């Protein structure tokens, strides 16, 4: 696997449909990741607006 820096959990993310994904980089300040086996699932994943309207939620903080 990639070398991981202590400050940054994610060095590269394949979830390009996530609104935090910027050119395969995660721009979210803090994320939660669930590890199961060899698969890491990001719990912070949020679909880009417009990509899917089946999600009615927003991840914006007030
Ligand atoms: S929030 Fe999660 S899914 Fe979205 S870009 Fe960051 S690591 Fe990837």
Automatic annotation (TrEMBL):
Boundaries of each DUF1540 domain copy?
12-45
A Pfam entry, by short name = DUF1540
What is this protein identified as? DUF1540 domain-containing protein
Species this chain originates from: Deinococcus arcticus
